[in-house]
Design a protein that fits this description.
Layout (H helix, E strand, L loop, with lengths): L9 E4 L1 H13 L6 E5 L1 H5 L3 H8 L5 E4 L2 H9 L6 E3 L8 H6 L4 E3 L2 H9 L8 E5 L12 H13 L3 E6 L11 H15 L7 E5 L1 H6 L7 E4 L23 E6 L2 E5 L4 E2 L5 E2 L4 E6 L15 E4 L2 E4 L9 E5 L8 E8 L2 E3 L1 H8 L3 H7 L6 E3 L1
Parallel strand pairs: 1-20, 2-3, 2-9, 3-4, 5-6, 6-7, 7-8, 8-9
Antiparallel strand pairs: 1-10, 10-18, 11-14, 12-13, 14-17, 15-16, 15-18, 18-19
Length: about 375
């Protein structure tokens, strides 16, 4: 999908805000803890290459979801450490090695598949994943971890890290979190040898659970200025959202009472109204279900009326404004603000998804 740079709809990313957020979090961590920035999913919609280039000298490493995301960073000139958090295909381990990308090993079965390919693993750097209770990927017993480390060492690979992931670090109840933490510590205690890096802290753990911080953290949505819990827990730091989404009015018209707007004629004007069109729609990640949500024009909330279509939406204005007037869909305007969490609450989802939904058709501009 081509980025539509000749259209007024755009995402403006404040790279300095991301850096400032990282520094605020680092100040609360114990001295010497390594910081890894998570830039998977195109840096949560912010643009992985631009964010990685900006952060490379500030953090100790970068985390991505898959091999293609890692290769994108290498092709963009990123030289630092990159860890793939997900499972890659066994046949592609050599490609990861060739680009000095660390891979995650989650099971003995996967490791056996790699060995069957006959690839030389000398110099391969890996992190082992422990499933302490998330239930997705990872080894559940210390014996499995010990065996994997033994086999990898015999094959010439370097086990440089061990990690787990918490399921409920962003929730008020600590029961499941403490259960997972205890399980992870038990597995650590039973290991024959421990890798240099031990990490369990995502954004939520780093913010609210200092007891879950080992010697490295993986900072994700928080560095982009978002509350990992949505509204469940108050942020302990004044993080700054890094992404603003804006567009402009491209048509403004007077509509008489009784006239309908949009596909399905789902909105009927109750009086003579001023209706404006904004060039953003569900192909841009602004979902059809956002009819009824309000966005900002001149510091005033204006309701989306009629269905959101593929490329456009319509809003009811308090008065006529000139074409080209700025429309704020995410961000601040005139003392008012719309956050990704506001959108998430309206849609019944999380702020992570809102940011990741912003499609590649929306160009990113950086400052």
């Amino acid at each position: 999908m081509v980025a539509s740079k000749h259209r007024p709809t755009r995402a403006i990313v404040d790279l300095s805000a991301i850096s400032a957020n990282i520094e605020m979090i680092k100040e609360e961590l114990p001295q010497g803890v390594k910081t890894w920035a998570v830039v998977k999913a195109d840096a949560y919609g912010h643009g992985a290459v631009a964010v990685a280039q900006h952060l490379e000298s500030q953090v100790d490493g970068l985390c991505v979801s898959n091999l293609d995301e890692a290769l994108e960073l290498r092709e963009a000139g990123i030289k630092g450490q990159i860890l793939i958090l997900g499972v890659i295909e066994a046949a592609h381990v050599g490609l990861a090695m060739a680009h000095q990308v660390m891979v995650t090993i989650t099971s003995q079965e996967w490791l056996e598949q790699v060995l069957l390919t006959g690839q030389d693993l000398t110099g391969l750097q890996v992190h082992l994943k422990v499933d302490s209770g998330m239930g997705r990927v990872g080894m559940r017993e210390a014996s499995q971890v010990n065996q994997a480390m033994e086999v990898l060492t015999q094959q010439g690979a370097q086990v440089v890290g061990l990690f787990t992931h918490f399921a409920t670090a962003d929730e008020a109840s600590q029961d499941k979190f403490q259960e997972q933490l205890a399980r992870f510590k038990q597995i650590l205690a039973e290991l024959d040898d421990k890798p240099a890096l031990i990490h369990a802290s995502n954004s939520a753990t780093s913010l609210w659970h200092p007891e879950g911080v080992f010697n490295a953290v993986r900072l994700g949505v928080a560095i982009y200025g978002q509350n990992p819990s949505g509204t469940s827990l108050p942020l302990p730091l004044d993080l700054r959202p890094a992404l603003r989404l804006e567009s402009q009015l491209v048509q403004v018209k007077q509509v008489a009472a009784g006239e309908t707007i949009g596909y399905g004629a789902t909105y009927t004007a109750q009086a003579d109204e001023v209706i404006a069109t904004v060039p953003i729609g569900y192909a841009d990640g602004w979902l059809r279900r956002l009819q009824g949500f309000s966005i900002l024009v001149d510091g005033q909330f204006c309701e989306i009326v009629g269905r959101v279509s593929m490329d456009q939406l319509t809003i009811r204005l308090p008065k006529a404004y000139p074409l080209g007037t700025v429309v704020t869909l995410l961000g601040q305007d005139g003392g008012q603000a719309i956050s990704a969490t506001d959108l998430a609450q309206f849609l019944g989802t999380i702020n992570y998804e809102i940011l990741c939904l912003i499609s590649g058709r929306v160009p990113r501009f950086y400052r």
